């Protein structure tokens, strides 16, 4: 490694060299090397621009979300937002490790660990996905879905390890959007070279695992967010579940579990009433 760096660096007349980090974000693009003893420092800096691949793979194959598999209300999305910087992804991995490297984490503990206390401490800031999950559950129970009630549910119940909720992600890594892919720069894992390869690697095994957990725990309600991912949701639900179009969402059921495919809370045009309406319809079934 050290020898390859030496060969890669042209030596100007004064003996100084520069090494560049073309994928560095928010940092200095090149480092001045004045003597050979600094090469080890450069190697260390290069390593700091990558994730720990063995631990990353462990996370990818172990982590599924937050909450409680014994809960009655499950919500399944495609992936979490975020992951804008390498430092933030490292923080998530470090926090997951500190919490015991479990399949499910406590949503509160995890987000306190990655420095988002505003979603749980008064005055509570509503998170656009969790607040609609809360709204569906409250409406299903016939309870008020006002902002104050939703804030209380988000603060105290959603995604907690002993709660009635289970929040899962089909893909384990956070990403700012489906059009952004940083992990080819942050990892040398071959299945992270692009999003398409990542999806092909993760989805079959994760669909099967989530389906097996639904079969084992039999929640009352499973809500999938994102109509465009309906083929995956069908795979998880099972071919015996026949989804019917109820206008703005799809509905199916199987052996005591109701399945809903709804618009994602980040989708354009969705309203609080849309999610409260889903809960009310479920209550009246």
Strand content: 5-15%
Q: What level of helicity do the residues show?
A: 40-55%
The largest sheet, given as strand count, sense and whether it forms a barrel, is: 8 strands, mixed
Q: How many strands appear in the DSSP assignment?
A: 10
**Which CATH-level-2 architecture of the largest domain?**
3-Layer(aba) Sandwich
Low-confidence stretches: 1-13, 16-46
The count of helical stretches stands at 11
The topology string of helices and strands comes to HEEHHEEHEHHHEHHEHEEEH
Which structural category fits the helices and strands?
alpha/beta
Strand order of the largest sheet: 5-3-6-4-7-10-9-8
Taken from the alpha-carbon principal axes, the silhouette is globular
N→C terminal distance: 65 Å
Query: What is the count of structural domains?
Result: 2
- Roughly what is the average pLDDT, rounded to an integer? 88
In CATH, what is the class of the largest domain?
A: Alpha Beta
General description of the model:
- There is one protein chain.
- The chain has eleven helices and ten strands.
- It has about 280 residues and is of the alpha/beta class.
- It has two domains: about 1-50; about 55-285, Uracil-DNA Glycosylase, subunit E (3-Layer(aba) Sandwich).
- Strands 5-3-6-4-7-10-9-8 form an eight-stranded mixed beta sheet. A two-stranded antiparallel sheet has the order 1-2.
- Strand 9 and strand 10 (about 255-260) form a beta hairpin.
- Helix 6 (about 130-140) runs parallel beside helix 11 (about 270-285) and helix 9 packs parallel to helix 10 (about 230-235).
- The longest helix has 23 residues, at about 195-215.
- It is globular, with a radius of gyration of 23 Å.
């Amino acid at each position: 490694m050290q020898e390859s760096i030496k060969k890669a660096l042209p030596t100007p007349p004064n003996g100084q060299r520069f090494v560049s980090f073309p994928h560095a974000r928010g940092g200095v693009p090149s480092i001045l090397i004045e003597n050979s003893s600094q090469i080890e420092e450069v190697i260390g800096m290069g390593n700091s621009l990558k994730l720990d691949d063995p631990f990353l793979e462990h996370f990818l194959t172990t982590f599924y979300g937050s909450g409680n598999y014994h809960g009655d209300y499950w919500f399944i999305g495609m992936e979490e937002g975020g992951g804008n910087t390498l430092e933030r992804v490292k923080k998530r991995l470090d926090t997951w490790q500190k919490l015991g490297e479990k399949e499910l984490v406590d949503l509160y503990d995890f987000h306190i660990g990655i420095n988002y206390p505003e979603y749980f401490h008064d005055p509570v800031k509503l998170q656009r996905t969790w607040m609609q999950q809360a709204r569906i559950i409250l409406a299903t129970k016939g309870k008020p879905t006002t902002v104050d009630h939703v804030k209380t549910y988000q603060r105290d119940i959603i995604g907690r390890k002993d709660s009635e909720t289970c929040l899962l992600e089909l893909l384990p890594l956070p990403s700012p959007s489906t059009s952004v892919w940083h992990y080819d720069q942050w990892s040398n894992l071959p299945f992270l070279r692009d999003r398409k390869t990542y999806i092909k690697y993760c989805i079959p095994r994760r669909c099967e695992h989530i389906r097996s957990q639904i079969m084992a725990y039999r929640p009352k309600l499973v809500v999938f967010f994102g109509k465009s991912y309906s083929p995956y949701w069908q795979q998880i639900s099972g071919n015996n579940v026949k989804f019917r179009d109820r206008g703005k969402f799809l509905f199916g059921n199987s052996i005591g579990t109701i399945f809903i495919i709804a618009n994602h809370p980040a989708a354009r045009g969705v309203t609080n009433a849309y999610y409260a309406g889903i809960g009310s319809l479920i209550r009246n079934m």
